[in-house]
Structure formats: structure tokens, C-alpha cells
Design goal:
- The protein is mostly helical and about 170 residues long.
- Helix content is about 65%, strand content about 0%.
- Helix 6 packs antiparallel against helix 7.
- The protein is elongated and about 65 Å long.
Length: about 170
């Protein structure tokens, strides 16, 4: 059996959750505790710096408005006008992370789907002539190792990081 006070507390928490998200997230204390949370999750210093920078950008966007799912979706749409998909997704990961940390799971948004390219853009591929020029230049300079490396990479399609296994 729940008491009247329990019901009141439950109602207050549920009814004010969106308003509390805004005031909580803006507080220096909340940023500090979130920073400690990221450290406890063993995030790298650069990741933590990026998350906090991205969150500051989001907070500037909110301009004191209550943080709702709709606001986060609008923010996502605004980002689409300015940034590449990978950048947008990294910013949204930071926003989703603090929303989850605060228990505001309902305000999180999906990342933008991005197809991975298995091969580089045709514009970045070496032409046959460029390949021969590179190999010939390496040979003329007496760098046979480089000439052989170029030939190996181009003949097999291996990654540079895989050269150590040959």
C-alpha cells in the first residue's frame, strides 16, 4: 500500500521530469558529476573533452528551454544543415549519453544511418599512369624497398598496416 506522500512524490517526479532535465543539465554540479561518470566509464580524455564541448553546444542551442524529445529532434535537424553525418552522429552520442545518465531515456534520438563505403571514391584512386610514375620515381631514387612496397600494395590490395605480415 502506498501512502499519499509516496503518490505525491511519484506524481511530482513524473510530471516535472522534463523541467528538471533542463535545470539539472545546466548546473555546474551536474556537469561535474557527469564528468566523473565519464571517467568511471574509462572514456579517454579526448572523448570526455569532446562530449563536454558537444554538450555545451547543445545547451547553447536549448537557450533555457525545457529539454524534450522534440527539442532534441529539432537540434538534430539543425545539425544536418551544418555538419557531415559522422560529425552529427558524434554530437548526438554525447547528447544521448548525458540524457541516459540523467535517466531521460525518452528524450534520446536515433543516430543518422550512414552507409559505409568499402572502396574509396573513384576520384581518389591512382590511375595506371600515376602508379607507374610512383614506382619509377622510387626506383630512380634508389629506393627499391618503396618500389616493391608500392607494387605489393597495388597488386594485392592489402592495407598498409598489413605490410608487416609479408
Amino acid at each position: 500500500e502506498t501512502t499519499v506522500q509516496d503518490q505525491k512524490n511519484k506524481h511530482t517526479k513524473k510530471g516535472m521530469s522534463r523541467m528538471l532535465i533542463q535545470s539539472d543539465i545546466l548546473s555546474t554540479h551536474r556537469f561535474t558529476t557527469y564528468h566523473h561518470h565519464l571517467l568511471a566509464e574509462e572514456k579517454s580524455p579526448t572523448t570526455i573533452t569532446k562530449y563536454l564541448r558537444d554538450l555545451q553546444k547543445f545547451l547553447t542551442y536549448t537557450a533555457g528551454r525545457p529539454i524534450t524529445k522534440e527539442l532534441v529532434i529539432t537540434y538534430k535537424e539543425e545539425l544536418k544543415q551544418q555538419y557531415a553525418t559522422a560529425s552529427i552522429n558524434s554530437m548526438l552520442v554525447a547528447v544521448n549519453s548525458i540524457l541516459a545518465y540523467m535517466g531521460a531515456y525518452e528524450c534520446r534520438v536515433r543516430l543518422i544511418k550512414q552507409q559505409r563505403q568499402s572502396f574509396c571514391d573513384k576520384k581518389k584512386e591512382l590511375t595506371r599512369e600515376e602508379y607507374f610514375n610512383l614506382v619509377e620515381t622510387a626506383q630512380k631514387r634508389g629506393n627499391m624497398q618503396l618500389a616493391l612496397i608500392l607494387q605489393t600494395i597495388c597488386a594485392t590490395g592489402i592495407r598498409v598496416s598489413e605490410l608487416q605480415y609479408i
